[in-house]
């Protein structure tokens, strides 16, 4: 459907207007709909202040006004707590919200504070016991530290600690004023050009404008006319439906759905792609972390497994994962192809046609000098709407589910499919993060060398297995994080510590250890993902994390650490190798926040695979070796959920190649009149 071109200067050219939804700014509506009571907001405000307390710097310190203002800023300042509450209600699951609200109510009372916080709320003066908000910031900090570090009966409070901490820092570092600026950015050295607004210049036609239908901009009547103008046959039925006829309807426009749409449209078939996300092009992007996460990622980038252990990053826009991934283009490893073709008995992966498909999709992704334009090949893309009162019914010869590994299984389950593999076998390529601080050199007077500048992923390091050097235990790559994402995930030790750390943000490099997981999870209901890490995968993550830390030391980091809740770190300038090894021996793949251990960590994943895996028969897979459902003729799956196992490297090329191969087969069958 789309051929990607690239010009690195596009995002720094201000001759265009950024998309309003990606431009930040103050809320247009001053009213909040979170439903928190005044007492709950008071407790939440007190927690936010404890996470980000105001700190006075000595007057004789040689610091600029931006730094002084940053240290003086507090998480209690309006509208941070209100925005935290609003975002939590929109993004967090109901069980987490229920727990949070109960805790906030209890903290608003003296007895409730005594129950949850212990004797620290005692005082020698009347009234002897204080509610949480009446305690000093220092005491509130100690309470939060206790919730984070104490296992066993404190697990519910650790969950509350985690959800408030994540959202507090996310809001604090993404909230912008009417000029799309955040007052803390100057102090932490985060410089992004503000988005342009209200340009008088007419917008250039977007690459897919002739093929995109955005129902939210239409009424019932104009929508009907618009769809007909695209060459589709539409019937206005008496039962409240618009019946739209086409050859192929594809749900999802990511790495799988986008490729399938391109192949089938180029073959002359009428293709409709249904996408719940909005349509943006590079010229729309503002580089603002908050609105970009909100618009381009599933659940605004705030999604995790049900136990809160693994943060799930998945695209939710036209282009899906291909629009937001870090452009790591790696072909399917030979050993993986052999395993799938021979052991899993899926012939596709042993064919020359599949290898040719990898070459084709790789060539289509090659950067060319064409001003960032894309070429539409004739598919129609329909995005989500809340303004059309009629329901849409698509009558197609072939239906392709390509909503991604987190959404395709719930779609199939809700459609009545019952194969027991649907939603299971979910692989995530779990990741653990390491960081290294590289202080600026005294001779460095330029603005270069900031962690958010330059290439995203420019190299990949394979960590060989000690037991079998021919095998890879983990891979190490660099992570790209805006300040809000970094602060949200970084371990909180105290308010002063996190502010000291954020001042160093531009010079902190993040590396991650990624494993080809044998572990698997399940997703059969939208937004509810379960996953359990096996001990071998934990060991491989540990090996990779140790290697990432060694790389940072070798590169000259002054200080290194992990994202474990206790702030595990070590100064390493001039460190003896024996001392470094002693520190590395403490590195582990710890449990998540629900683990009954003092130390815990958060995992991340940007790769989801295998939840509707192909198989040689119904007992081996959710669909057959051509991606077709065992239960419904003409229903195909064409995304990362098809893959039989984890790939072990960034899976974009593998997903696109699989989609290319399968959609070619579908096109051939359509021409034969099979469907």
UniProtKB/TrEMBL annotation:
Q: What Pfam families does UniProt report for this protein, alphabetically?
A: FAD_binding_2 (PF00890), GMC_oxred_C (PF05199), GMC_oxred_N (PF00732)
Lineage top rank: taxon = Eukaryota
Q: Which GO terms describe its cellular component?
A: membrane
- Similarity annotation: Belongs to the GMC oxidoreductase family.
Q: Does this entry carry the keyword Hydrolase? A: no
This entry's Gene Ontology molecular function terms read:
flavin adenine dinucleotide binding; long-chain-alcohol oxidase activity
Which keywords has UniProt assigned to this entry? FAD, Flavoprotein, Membrane, Oxidoreductase, Transmembrane, Transmembrane helix
Q: Provide the active-site residues from the annotation.
A: 607
* UniProt protein name: Long-chain-alcohol oxidase
Query: Region (Disordered) spans which residues?
Result: 1-29
Species of origin reads Artemisia annua
Q: State which residue ranges cross the membrane.
A: 98-122
Enzyme Commission code: 1.1.3.20
Q: Which reaction does it catalyse?
A: a long-chain primary fatty alcohol + O2 = a long-chain fatty aldehyde + H2O2
Location within or outside the cell: Membrane
Q: Which residues form the FAD-dependent oxidoreductase 2 FAD-binding domain?
A: 247-279
Locations of Low complexity compositional bias? 1-13
Signal peptide from the UniProt entry = none
